[in-house]
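Worked example 3. Consider a protein that binds S-adenosylmethionine.
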Amino acid sequence: MSVITDKLGRPLKDLRISVIDRCNFRCTYCMPKEIFGRDFIFMPKEQLLSFEEIERLAQIYVDLGVRKIRLTGGEPLLRRDLPTLIKKLTEIDGLEDIGLTTNGSLLGHMAEKLKAAGLQRVNVSLDALDEELFQSINDSGIKPERVLTGIEKAKEAGLEVKVNMVVKKGMNDKEIIPMAAYFKERGIALRYIEFMDVGQSNGWDFSKVITKKQIFEELKQHFDLESVEPAYLGEVAKRYRYRGTNTEVGFITSVSESFCSTCTRARIAADGKMYTCLFAEKGFDYREMLRSGMSDEEIKDAVVSVWSNRTDRYSDERTEESAKNRSKIEMSYIGG
Ligand code: SAM
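Given these inputs, the predicted complex is written out as structure tokens:
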């Protein structure tokens, strides 16, 4: 097995694959209706990588050292027959872990099928428990109960579940404590995600970010927390445990404490473009390579060439200026 490293010595170990650019939510901070409205043109089916193409790329990346793959989107559960893809991916020798990030709205129906296909873990995004607030954030009429049922079904099916909550000032700060209490009681890990300046559509600025430090201070007033050592180098979440329990709460601090120096992740968008950073401006087109008859070895060489020239450390260098002026791709396209 080869290990390839980039210009800053970071190995390629994780791969996020977006399987679709569509979503059934219109979260105001991610896919606002004013931009992703009825007239928005999503990718036609033939532009999406096929399952065979995804499997082939996944195998190539595993041969190059990738050990973890996470499927995302858009909303990955909107991709027809997703369990078939998962089953195929589990058969790749050397791949140790497959995860899925979902808004949970379709998880109730899908959990058992996903587990049967070999999925181990699912991260469910949920930004509020309050019905009215949740509906105003997702802007698509979906109630939190539906996501909570999805979470329950996923647990019943034997999937490991974590919940991710993006915290944005003025949007859902009031939900920080209710979310912690709810998931603590059920023994489910909750992670707070700092609102990031991905894409061009979400009107980001620093004043809308609630940092880990601020959330932590608030949590400490209600709960007794102890820190948990990272499970491996490059673990993204800063982890804590409610003292006396095994239940964790964590933080994804991509704004206040960036983690570029240990970022080992590549991303493939639904149309087969590879990105070496969530905040990238430019991708590398693998779909074209796959469809033009290139051999696995040739595609491998192309991946190695892109990764070994990687210098990205956007979050380390972020300023209000760079956040505004850079033309970044959208989260729904690159896959969160
Ligand atoms: N539809 C799936 C879901 O909801 O989990 C997968 C894609 S979604 C883009 C992945 C995650 O990115 C979600 O948890 C979403 O809340 C998060 N996200 C989107 N825009 C974000 C932003 N500007 N800052 C932080 N997280 C964001």
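Take a moment to read the result before moving on. The radius of gyration is 19 Å. The chain has a mean pLDDT of 94.
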